[in-house]
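Encode chain A's predicted structure.
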Amino acid sequence: MTDTIEPKRVVVSLAVGVLTIAAAILAFGVAKKTGMLDPDLARRGVAIMLGLMLVVTGNYVPKLRLFQASGGQAGTSAVDRFAGWTFVLSGIAFITTWVFAPIGSAMLASPMIGAAGFLLVLARWIAWGDRSGASTNGSALPKVTPARAAIFMLLASLLWTFAIFFADTIWGDSVAQWMAMGFVIALCAVSPFLVAAIRRTGGRA
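Encoded structure for chain A:
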């Protein structure tokens, strides 16, 4: 993972990677619905694509400087690198689980792997804010830009997807479907505020 690439190039390449993976997920879903693929095999394929999406996203976190503080304090690049590698390794572990573990075990263990990665990144960011003293004046919060907003929403979507996998294992399809619907509703509700915040920053990447 490299740390500095021109933002527009990064956003375009990230979008291409994510859309390619999303197309593969859609293909697995269609193959399952039409009976062209065994349901368990299709589920494994979708899960592997989700893990791959986490790997791809993690690779771009340092390039987009997701955790760069508004105050510009030194040390945020280390947080970004830690977050990038943590997401990449979590994605690889997620994929490995779905390749080798039985379906039931993978459904239970893989969301925990994904959630653990997110919690490690959150803990690292909080620890940096406490050491730097940035959290006392609020400047530890990243600047809101279109690129960072996009990657944040992608990571939030992946985290919620892991939660849906876990809920599907414990409580079944009905709960998982309601969680999916709830996330879409929440995303639609938050989007206008996110767009307004981006506009206030001038829309800079």
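The mean pLDDT is 77.
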